Amino acid sequence: MDLALFDFDGTITTGDTYTPFLGYISPAAFRRRAWRRLLWPWLGYKLGLVSGTAVRRQVTAHVLRGREVSAIRALGLRYARERLPHVLRPEAMARLAWHRERGDRIVVVSASLDAYLAPWCRAHGLELICSELESREGVLTGRYRGGDCAGAAKAARVREHLRLEDYACVHAYGDTVEDRELLALAHRPVYRWQAAA
What we know:
The chain is an alpha/beta fold. 47% of the residues lie in helices and 21% in strands. A hairpin with a 2-residue loop joins strand 3 and strand 4. The chain starts with a strand and ends with a strand.
């Protein structure tokens, strides 16, 4: 049995699912206020001046702090069922099926949120390591439990949960610089659906 590690946004999907999810769960008036408040961090990220981790931390806190866990889970399930099927890459789904047919262990490793990734992965029979929303007494704090699962944290979490030496071959699939450390774990790294050195 081999191990297959898949990034989600941009690898299994055609693009970002985190930002559309936040829009999906937020009323229009709230989105307008949030856009004004978060414009500068977002521009800093686009210009390469602010890390994706820093921007996600601010946005997640602003949009999710104080929301009920049960409500966000219900919206996450609906988002996974209604929206995600329309953004899946055919080549990614074919590769997941290939690994499944071989009997490989498949784990999605993502900075995106458990609110919608957990139900999507359950529906597809996949394991998941991702950014998990922290809550207290049924209410979201706006923070991550264990931090943002991006960059070096992806590789660290894989090593915490899995013994890589138990697998004859490790495959890893990614599409951004935040996947570099994940790809470095693999015997067979694939970057943007091309074999990587």
